[in-house]
């Protein structure tokens, strides 16, 4: 194990909303280092969300992230030759990371013309408590609830 923890590199906030969370989301969305393309996709998606709902697209996106954020997850642990799924609290950094990755993953799996369309639809669905990313969170919580009996192994 190393002696000192590596320093967290501070992200620059995005130009439009001046939010570090948006920068993190775009970094997760980005493929092959094409950050400007990722920003375009995100901003188009937010624009489409505001047109669909008639509300502020950025606020809907924040609500979607909050709705998809898990609080508990299961971790595998071997104890005496058997593997148990042990429910554990999710660290704050990981909570946000998981919610972003799930939103992006399930928007990529949707059917639509462009990535901006898919992302916009997933954001709207997640803000209403629907869609693949929200279902993933519910499944994660259900797994943790089902394995609550093994929580003492923590």
Describe the structure in your own words:
The protein is mostly helical. Helices cover 58% and strands 10% of the residues. It has six helices and two strands. It has helices at residues 20-29, 35-53, 57-68, 92-109, 115-128, 131-146; strands at residues 72-79, 82-89. It has a two-stranded antiparallel ribbon. Strand 1 and strand 2 form a beta hairpin. Helix 1 crosses helix 4, helix 2 (35-53) crosses helix 5 and helix 4 crosses helix 5. The radius of gyration is 18 Å and the shape is globular.
Task: Please give the structural blueprint.
Elements: H1 20-29, H2 35-53, H3 57-68, E1 72-79, E2 82-89, H4 92-109, H5 115-128, H6 131-146
Antiparallel strand pairs: 1-2
Helix pairs in contact: 1-4, 2-3, 2-5, 3-4, 3-5, 4-5, 4-6
Helix content: 55-70%
* Count, helices: 6
Largest sheet: 2 strands, antiparallel
Are there runs of 5+ residues with pLDDT below 50, and where? none
Mean pLDDT: 91
**Structural class determined from secondary elements:** mainly alpha
Going across the biggest sheet, name each strand in turn. Answer: 1-2
What is the rounded Rg? 18 Å
**What percent of residues are in strands?**
5-15%
Identify the overall geometry: globular
How many extended strands? 2
Order of helices and strands: HHHEEHHH
N-C termini distance: 21 Å
Describe the structure concisely for a colleague.
Helix content is 58%, strand content 10%. It has 154 residues and is mainly alpha-helical. Strand 1 and strand 2 (82-89) form a beta hairpin.
